[in-house]
Amino acid sequence: MSKKVISVFTAFLFMLILCSFVSPFSSNEKIEGNKIERKIVYNKNKHAIILSWGAFGTSGNYIITRGGSRLATDFVSVGSTSKLSFTDNKPNTDKYENYYKVTRNNITIVISLENQIFGDNMYFYDRKHEKAETARNDINSQFGAIGLGGANGEWTTKRQAYYFKPNVNGQTYDVGGSGSASSAEANSIELGFYSHIGGLGKVPSDVKLGAIFTRPHLSGGANATCTFWRSVENVEVMRDFSWTVSQSTSARRLSIDGTSKYISDIGSTNFWGSGGFIADTHYTSTRPNWGGQQQWYTRNTVFPSGSGTMGGSYNMVWQGCVNPPQADDVNSPVATTPIIKEKPFLFIDSDGEYKVFVPAWQKDRIGTSWTSKDMGQGKVQDLLAQWYVTKEGDTDVEINAALKAGKNIFFTPGHYALNAPIQVNRKDAILLGAGIASVTLEPTDKNTWGCIYADDKDGIVIAGLLMDSFNSTTYQVRIGNEGANADHSLDPILLTDITCRVGGVQSKNIQIQTAMQINSNNVVGDHFWLWRADHGSQKGGDLRWVRDRCKNGLIVTGKDVTLYALFVEHFQEYEVLWLGERGRTFFFQNEPPYDAPNQSAWSSQGGKVNGYAAFKVANSVKEHHTIGMGSYAVFTGTDGNVNKKNGFEIPNSPDVKLEKMCITRFAGSGNILNVINSTGGSTATGAKRVAVYNNGEGIQPFDEEFTLPNRESYPSYISMEK
User: Fold this and answer.
1) Coil, strand, or helix at residue 54?
2) pLDDT mean across residues, the chain
3) What pLDDT shows up at residue 29?
4) Backbone φ, ψ for residue 687 (5° rounding)
5) Between residues 271 and 182, which one has the greater pLDDT?
6) What φ, ψ does residue 696 adopt, rounded to 5°?
7) Which of 11, 441, 710, 713 is the most core-located residue (most Cβ within 10 A)?
8) Which stretches of 112-187 are assigned E, i.e. beta strand?
9) For residue 358, what are the β-bridge partners?
10) DSSP symbols for 574-622
């Protein structure tokens, strides 16, 4: 055979082999989402997969190809049919590593077990079947395509979570790169509004990413004061972690190997932020820098040894950390975390099945809950057997029915509109959102109660949910009925990564009495942002004062309630009102309402006192302790003559103590006139601090009666029906 014949044969053979593979990115292929009915059934006994779908296209057979993941490079032809079903008798060994494209007339639908279980807003990546750059390119394309980076991203209803399967054979998801995560050369993953990154391994090092960047969008390019609503969990960041964020952002269970900074290095001015929260994290090589952040709460985190400053302007709390900064005016290290249970998370177990790890309660903890080889203390629950997995469009009827049937609830990313509240009415029930900002619960006109109502039961966990209100309600979240008195000390209630949002997005006037009320005893809160919106998709200013009404951000009547990382802003009366005994708060951040039109509209204690304290411990309380408190004056929507007398108010009592308080003014003409109980000085002459106030000589607030939500005090338009 001549060389020419051999070369022609070789070329033909190569083309034949090439045609057996189908690119996942065909230029003339239109990928359809959930518009066309899809179904997939796995037959475990036969190890076969049966596909079925609704008709589409006009003529010809349906062509079926299979890849190991949604964006796999190894899609191959497995057959064709004129019918609306197909059986694959030789699928890949792992049932979740079978993604099918069904194509007809240049229209393609994708069918997989993961999509069927988790819906269209959860995206899975598998390095075993994909190139290193695939996940990064896919996430960043969404960041640009659906506006997750700019101001409009703040109010989108889109929700998404990006989950990474464990690396195999030493592979990583790092595409390589250099320099700061903000630079093009770093090849970073950019995480935008309402987005979540989660590792599906048992420990963070099972999923290795390169660099992560959150891009600020406000003036000057580096102003992160509105970089909200995003989260990352259970991964290792190998290069640069540039987490430039503010409130309602959660970083948990991380291993950070390279540099890390919490203010972006892009732009020219306004290098500042108003964040944030990090917990259960190990920095392996360098000490991070929070320079430019107004405040930050860091819990149970390990830092390399060193004495250099790690930044921050007003209020930095470091709890249960290894090698934290030394104590000074700004930094408040707290030796241990007295009681904590980490947030549950989704992972893939050794048997290849999806599970949820529910960590155990721990007391007086220092450092992380995990090691490089051990996921930590806790219980493993089978997702398909023990959980109901919601999808966007599910209603309160389906969710409450699943709870009553004994299922826990895994909320996939979505925008959930409710006609009635979610009723958590059994012990140890869990509500878990796939990312802190990935689930929005919105009452409709028929729901006059709120978003979540939890009974006074042991062991309830509510995690990773954002609550909105498009309708007037009494609460957004209520934990325990009025007068709840059960002892939950052996199995406390956990609330973690919770956002309550009043205003900002709705088009009509609303009235809410309090965003969250905790009536139960022995509740642990781990990171809240309770926010009456100071800006939004509608005009603000004085009009917001009457359009978006909410008296209190948080009311605590329960005993032995412990809160970590409490952010509460812009409510119209006492932003935190504490009535229960033996309460503890570690880190508190606040801005008063911007939009009080005049002093007479915003006066407390029967009109005797200008404004309302941000954190109010009632005179009836005998024992309370809070550490690390900041309240910052921004009175911009006013007549220019609105002030607040006290940042904080407590009884002069031997066992009531507040530590490390700070007030200052950011904008506007009004001031906070005293730090606490008429002492400590005014923001008119700069930032003021009080190290400790305990049974001090300041003026104790007037005794007053507090109007709390109850059946007699609900507004006339609220009809209370459980």
Assistant:
1) coil
2) 90
3) 58
4) -65, 140
5) 182
6) -80, -175
7) 441
8) 122-125, 160-164
9) 379
10) -SEEE-STTEEEEEEEE---TT--SGGGSEETTTTEEB--SEEE-TT--
- Which residues are within 8 A (CB) of 559 and not within 5 positions of it... i.e. 6 or more apart? 521, 522, 580, 581, 582, 583
CB 162 within 8 A of CB 125: yes
DSSP 8-state code for residue 182: T
Closest CA to 375 of 418, 346, 352, 404: 346
Enter the tokens of residue 14: 């190569």
* d(C-alpha 98, C-alpha 76), whole Å: 11
> Quick one: pLDDT at residue 715?
44
Distance between CA atoms of residues 173 and 348, nearest Å? 17
pLDDT at 5: 37
Beta bridge partners of residue 107, listed in sequence order: 30, 104
Q: How far apart are alpha carbons 196 and 232 in whole angstroms?
A: 6
What residues act catalytically?
Answer: 591
At 664-678, the pLDDT tens digits run: 999 999 999 999 999
Q: Is 125 within 8 Å of 163 (Cβ atoms)? A: yes
> Among residues of the chain, what percentage have pLDDT more than 70?
90
Give the C-alpha separation, 92 to 74, whole Å: 12
Residue recorded with tokens 């709460």: 297
Report the largest interatomic distance among the alpha carbons of the chain, rounded to a whole angstrom: 106
Q: Tell me how far apart the alpha carbons of residues 268 and 576 are, in angstroms, rounded to a whole number.
A: 37
Q: What three-state secondary structure class fits 172?
A: coil
Q: Which residues pair with 85 in a beta bridge?
A: 52
Q: Is the four-CA dihedral 51, 53, 59, 65 of positive or negative sign?
A: negative
602 in Cβ contact with 640 (< 8 Å): no
What contacts 696, CB < 8 A, 6 or more positions away?
652, 676, 677, 679
Strand order in the sheet with 99-104: 30-32, 107-111, 99-104, 62-67, 76-81
Closest alpha carbon to 463 in 413, 389, 394, 526:
526
How many other C-beta atoms lie within 10 A of the C-beta of residue 648? 26
